[in-house]
């Protein structure tokens, strides 16, 4: 199983539980830093792209997040959505 994740680097004096301005966010694969980016959103998209392009399984705790990103946000392999995703998509479209 290939290990892939995001590493957030923060300042030592930052005591906030949520880090809106990290020093950097890195995409890490098998303990190696693949790329370093300034924003979480950029790092998430790069990590998603690696997972999708390499045909890897989504990390089990984040399967719904990645399926939502793939099928709703990016419209990849949208086809027939599972009921949970279809309901979420419908709810989001009402507020759009």
From TrEMBL:
This is Uncharacterized protein. The lineage of its organism: Eukaryota, Metazoa, Chordata, Craniata, Vertebrata.
């Amino acid at each position: 199983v290939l290990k892939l994740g995001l590493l957030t680097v923060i300042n030592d004096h930052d005591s906030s539980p949520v880090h809106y301005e990290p020093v950097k966010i890195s995409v890490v694969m098998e303990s190696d830093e693949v790329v370093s980016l300034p924003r979480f959103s950029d790092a998430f998209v790069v990590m998603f792209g690696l997972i999708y392009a390499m045909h890897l399984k989504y990390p089990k705790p984040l399967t719904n997040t990645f399926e939502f990103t793939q099928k709703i946000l990016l419209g990849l392999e949208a086809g027939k959505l599972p009921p949970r995703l279809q309901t979420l998509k419908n709810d989001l479209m009402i507020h759009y």
